[in-house]
Amino acid sequence: MVQLENVTKQFGNYKAVNELNLNVRAGEFLTLLGPSGCGKTTTLRMIAGFEKPTSGSVKIGEKKVDHVEPYKREANTVFQSYALFPHMTVSENVAFGLKMKKINKQEIAERVKQALKMVQLESYGDRSVKQLSGGQQQRIAIARAIVNNPKVLLLDEPLGALDLKLRKQMQMELKRLQKSLGITFIYVTHDQEEALTMSDRIVVMNEGEIEQTGRPNEIYEKPKTRFVANFIGETNIFKGVVDNLNGNYASLKVAGQHVLIPKSSNLKEAEEVYISVRPENAKISDQQQDNLFVLTGEFKEKVYIGTTTKIVVELNGGMEMIVHESNGKMDGVKKGNPISVSWEPADSVILR
Amino acid sequence: MRVKTKRILFVYSMLVFLFFYIPMIVLMIFSFNDSKLGTVWTGFTFDWYFKLIHDEQIINALKNSIIVTMITTLIASILGTLAALAIHRYKFFGKQVVNFLFYIPVVIPDIVVGVALLAIYGWLHVTLGVPTVIPGHVVITTSYVMLVVVARLYGFDSSLEEAAKDLGANSWQTFWKVTFPLIFPGVLAGALMAFTISLDEFVIAFFNTGPGSGTLPVLIYSMVRKGVSPEINALSTIMIFFIVIMVLVVGKRMTQTKK
């Protein structure tokens, strides 16, 4: 539906987007995820037509749009600041796009009504947009875009200004809306949780380049780079050297201790690799359990985080590790007490 | 606040307002004075107002003033707004210099503009008349409009214009449907300033009008030289009322658009 080919955008000497290739499929919810300054908004703005790529080309549908002005593109944008016209009523805002297309008045009224109904604000048509709350303004901004039946809806951190509860609610609504309309959504956010909840596919960006593209579970469970592992969720990253490939698992020497990791075909002896271990996959181990390997260390501190307790372990050799354990398990354990940690070899994700 | 402080501040404020408005109030009162001398109150009359509307010289000067002021306001508003948009929107070589150049007419003495313009007219052999006042007025008022509109544009969310384009409006439609309505209060305020400045401008008008084509301030000046007549008081009273009503109307309009 939307294709970017070798797209580069340069602002002076600064490369905001570098040789980006992206193929957005029809009807999917695709999220561009990354920290601020990673080029995700610039990418979105190039699709909308507000920025012209320095090189490369953008296609919407089957049409190359490099020389097409924003007002002729079949994409509509929901802006971060909502950008509702303050001198117009809610209805006039929503009708704006249709009026520009010179659609007859009766049809405009009908479609505006439908769009407002879709965002559950059908009785707000005559209000001034300034009388609406942040969440309501957000919905109007969405209604104003989808009323035009765009092929692609571009959303630039649309929930950034809402409080947590409202944001969660809007996430669900947006997802539902996208499914029922069947419109392709390209969504920009820096919030990894939001990306994981809503997307069909996530594109993780960093410094103007794509780090990894994949389904939410792939991105979370099988990060390919250290950046992705670090950016998505909490994780422990260890640097180690492969020192034995003879057993069922490969052995990795991490700060003087041994960790077993899955034997992937391209591991070489004496190779330096990074592994990522999610805190929820690691366990504080007892002597009785028959673990494949155990790392020893000292208990440092614990933080109650609701469903679980976050435990910080100082591993022998100087590395720190975070483990999520069930609440109450570490009661009575004091700072400096010796403890050991273990996890399934399959839970180590090898990063390059 | 202590009661005593409050009282002192009240008296102080009253004195300031009296200082502002006593001359005008006296002028208004004496426009209804029966005496020709204008220094002693002898009785109430509307005579001066009747005389005023039958004085061809004054009516003519009023006509000239209205022509000059209207055209000046229109040109200054358009030029000032366009300049403000350019300064706000674009980065270009020498922008700082251009910006600075707009401040010069605000601080430069009117007499310099007046004399300079007169010199140019002399050099080009232009006959002085009503139209020759307008360029001078445009020079001093455009900057005011530009400064006011720039202030209004500061903080203007440019994503509103992007949103309009995103929704299918071309640049022309975007300007008239979104940008202009939003900066309109600024344009109106600028136009009002241009209007009042041009209406009572004396120096430039004095130097650049021909015989019989003087604006109201120029005529008043020549009348006053023969002594302040109550007719002038009546004329001034009318002007004060006219300006006050206009400011009220425009001010109300502006607060409505802002809402």
From TrEMBL, chain B:
**Any transmembrane segments, and where?**
9-32, 66-88, 100-124, 136-154, 175-197, 232-251
Q: What are the GO cellular component annotations?
A: plasma membrane
Q: Where in the cell is it found?
A: Cell membrane
Which residue numbers delimit the ABC transmembrane type-1 domain? 62-250
Kindly give the Gene3D superfamilies that the UniProt entry links to this protein. MetI-like
Its keywords, alphabetically, are:
Cell membrane, Membrane, Transmembrane, Transmembrane helix, Transport
Q: Which InterPro entries match?
A: Bact_Polyamine_Transport, MetI-like, MetI-like_sf
Q: Main localization of the protein?
A: membrane
Pfam family name, one: BPD_transp_1
Membrane topology term:
Multi-pass membrane protein
What domain of life does the UniProt record list for this protein's source? Answer: Bacteria
Gene Ontology terms: biological process: transmembrane transport
The UniProt family comment states:
Belongs to the binding-protein-dependent transport system permease family. CysTW subfamily.
Name assigned to this protein: ABC transmembrane type-1 domain-containing protein
Q: Which organism is it from?
A: Lentibacillus populi
